[in-house]
Write a structure and sequence with these properties.
Layout (H helix, E strand, L loop, with lengths): L1 H37 L25 H10 L1 H11 L2 E4 L3 E3 L3 E3 L2 E6 L4 E8 H23 L3 E6 L7 E4 L2 E6 L7 E9 L4 E3 H4 L5 H13 L5 E3 L11 E4 L5 E2 L1
Helix pairs in contact: 2-3, 2-4, 3-4, 4-6
């Protein structure tokens, strides 16, 4: 037995040295990769570099949602991203209304990148996700299905100090609208003058319905909870786009 242990000892030692060497090599590689990423003259494009700030108009890559997460949680970074993209979001003083209502990162949203918005108070992180959706989903879908651009986003607001509404009535929980973490979209106005709404254009087999359904699916890439006409009758006329939640898309 003792002789077997002696014979196995060189193998165990070699295995331990190999693992230690591999771990050291991995650490060195990780440090070198980080050095390359944080260098001001890094050859890696910003939209592939997780250490660089988000650009709304940059191509979407595997690191885009990480950049979005960082920008959304930092008000200064969020406002800077919106400003660099040309989004009209003017800063307002934060306010609270009671224990459950108020708007942090408060501002007035008036334009996205390509579409106008009737001025509405919301939080910066909500406006940021809306701008990502408009640029990467809404406008491409309008071009593909309708041959034109979206000139205006139609909505029924963001902030509303109220409890959640359900098909059985008002619940005891507070709505995400109470903190402006949601945005309700009713339709769009197109550059050629057409006005599309969920009530009128959700159903059917034409390009208008195809457009509506594509932008609904696309919103699920940028918002954490999306409710629309397929969910219940309370959402027959609008998309409820929410920045919090666990990935529900209905």
């Amino acid at each position: 037995m003792e002789e077997d242990l002696i014979k196995r000892r060189p193998f165990v030692l070699r295995a331990a040295l190999f693992l230690f060497s591999a771990l050291c090599s991995l650490c060195i590689f990780a440090l070198f990769a980080m050095w390359l990423l944080v260098r001001p003259d890094s050859v890696l494009p910003d939209h592939w570099n997780p250490t660089r700030p988000l650009s709304i108009t940059a191509p979407v890559t595997p690191v885009t949602h990480w950049q979005l997460f960082l920008a959304a949680r930092d008000e200064a970074a969020c406002r800077d991203v919106l400003a660099r993209a040309g989004v009209g979001f003017s800063q307002l003083k934060e306010f609270t209304s009671g224990e459950h209502c108020g708007i942090a990162q408060r501002g007035s949203l008036s334009t996205l990148i390509g579409a106008q918005v009737a001025p509405v108070e919301t939080r910066c992180s909500t406006a940021l996700r809306l701008a990502m959706w408009e640029h990467h989903e809404l406008q491409p879908a309008a071009k593909a299905h309708l041959g034109t651009d979206v000139s205006q986003l139609l909505h029924i607001g963001s902030y509303n100090c109220r409890k959640m509404r359900t098909s059985r009535g008002t619940s005891s929980g507070w709505s995400s609208h109470a903190t402006a973490r949601s945005f309700d979209i009713t339709g769009v106005r197109l550059s050629d003058g057409r006005r599309l709404t969920l009530l009128k254009d959700w159903e059917g087999a034409g390009p208008e319905a195809a457009f509506m359904r594509q932008i609904w699916r696309g919103s699920c890439r940028w918002f954490r909870l999306v409710l629309g006409p397929e969910y219940n009758r309370l959402h027959a006329d609008h998309f409820h786009l929410q920045t919090t939640g666990w990935g529900l898309c209905r």
